[in-house]
Amino acid sequence: NAGVTQTPKFQVLKTGQSMTLQCAQDMNHNSMYWYRQDPGMGLRLIYYSASEGTTDKGEVPNGYNVSRLNKREFSLRLESAAPSQTSVYFCASSEDGADTGELFFGEGSRLTVL
Amino acid sequence: KQEVTQIPAALSVPEGENLVLNCSFTDSAIYNLQWFRQDPGKGLTSLLLIQSSQREQTSGRLNASLDKSSGRSTLYIAASQPGDSATYLCAVVNNAGNMLTFGGGTRLMVKP
């Protein structure tokens, strides 16, 4: 049971570099999400995709872009990384919206921006 | 703006004790409330989901209650075990739909 798979698990970037975090789910879920988790701030929603072909901003979208490549995959891109983007990033999915069912999370991607 | 608070931030109990974790939220107009468990360095695992029309949900030794009108939920863990040691987070979905608002979590340590 793979569930939600994120890559890479760890990454170190220099300020200004770009990278893409990949996420894939094998549960045939319609909705996918990207969160970041910071000490003292809890988990905050960056972007979500309610269904294939749609994406919407969450609470903290600045500095990020997303792509819902197909039903399985939802990627998060940092075009020009900043130290403030040092965080643990979690991808999640749900069968439909978060208002109807539970969320399933990946194991996280730990990003450090120097 | 919805705010979710979890008290206490940390809790240490001896094995076998029954315990209660608290979650409060400021906006009672929610669709559902979900409790999660997070082990160090890992992702979140869903424990219980309570829809806004429900009062409680049970799974094994876990029981979660919801009082929408007072903006509170509790997670009751019976006969705690060292394997229950983890951070427990609650999150609510407000009427905006897809946005979960998380509390800061309670870090639980169950000592053998």
Give the helix/strand class of chain B.
mainly beta
Task: Report how far apart the termini of chain B are.
Answer: 41 Å
Number of helical segments with 4 or more residues of chain B: 0
User: Which regions of chain B are unreliable across 5 or more consecutive residues at pLDDT < 50?
Assistant: none
Major sheet of chain B = 6 strands, mixed
State the helicity of chain A in percent bands.
under 10%
What Rg of chain A is obtained from the alpha carbons, in whole angstroms?
A: 13 Å
Mean of residue pLDDT values of chain A: 93
Describe the structure in your own words.
The complex is a heterodimer of chains A (114) and B (112). Chain A is mainly beta. Chain A has strands spanning 4-7, 10-13, 19-25, 31-38, 42-49, 56-57, 64-68, 74-78, 87-94, 104-105, 109-113. In chain A, the strands form two sheets. In chain A, strands 2, 4, 5, 6, 9, 10 and 11 form a seven-stranded mixed beta sheet that branches. Chain A is globular. The relative contact order of chain A is 0.33. The model of chain A has no long low-confidence stretch (mean pLDDT 93). With 112 residues, chain B is an all-beta fold. Chain B has no helices and eleven strands. Chain B has strands at residues 4-7, 10-14, 19-25, 30-38, 44-51, 56-59, 62-67, 72-77, 86-94, 100-102, 106-111. Chain B starts with a strand and ends with a strand. Chains A and B meet through strand 5 and strand 10 of A and strand 4, strand 5 and strand 9 of B.
Write a brief structural summary.
The complex is a heterodimer of chains A (114) and B (112). By secondary structure, chain A is mainly beta. Chain A has no helices and 11 strands.
